[in-house]
Amino acid sequence: MSISIVDESKISAHTIATLYYSFYRELRDKQGLPCGSVEDYEKEIRELIKGGNKFFIALIDNDPAGFVRISEREGAYWIEEIFVKPKYRGQGLGRILVEEAEKYIKERDDAAYIMVLPQELSTIKFWLHMGYKMLNTIELVKYLNNPPKTEETRMLEVFGFPLLIWRWEKEEYDELELEFLSVLKEFFYKYDRVVFLKVIIYALKRALKNEKMD
Ligand SMILES: CC(C)(COP(=O)(O)OP(=O)(O)OC[C@H]1O[C@@H](n2cnc3c(N)ncnc32)[C@H](O)[C@@H]1OP(=O)(O)O)[C@@H](O)C(=O)NCCC(=O)NCCS
User: How far is the CA of 209 from the centre of ligand 1 (A)?
Assistant: First the structure.
């Protein structure tokens, strides 16, 4: 198996678009939303390249297997998307693409930034594993007509403030995470953030004293 990494100057926009399409098809499928066509993405990619975006494409025995896109905006370098075809996952290709992107960014700046949706827990775990830290950015909204129904959202928390996230059609939470989400939702129906913070502080102090938790 031979792996090579090329940039957007060595490969057609159409080939990148087929990978881009697979990335969005997988994401939109999880979200339960429709996806664009390869042609739509090809147009978008031509514009992105014109606008200075950098693509690295991984080829396995000449088969396009994954890509990463980097952009410069708001005074920082962003890894906008990374994607490895499902059949090539778990073999180190994602790491190779991340390291290629980091090498490119390191020659130009001191930090690589990424934005991830809170529903993408598996992706967040991947980035944490790759040495990234969670930082900033809470999106706020005021619904001026129809607020979403509660069953369309899930509830997380930030400093005890409920943070609503969309409930995706295909979620990837494990049992512990699902239990947390369910208890959290029930909790916030009954109590406010002050009680939440007190409960958490109490539980954390107990855990620090090595008290057994079932
Ligand atoms: C995320 C993604 C790019 C990873 O690609 P991959 O080729 O499977 O990753 P690798 O095999 O190179 O894994 C790199 C390292 O991350 C770890 N890792 C991979 N997926 C992980 C996950 N979900 N959680 C925690 N660690 C993970 C691997 O164990 C490996 O560790 P090591 O190098 O220390 O041994 C791939 O799963 C993917 O395309 N997912 C769908 C698209 C996506 O979510 N993109 C990110 C949003 S922009």
Answer: 35
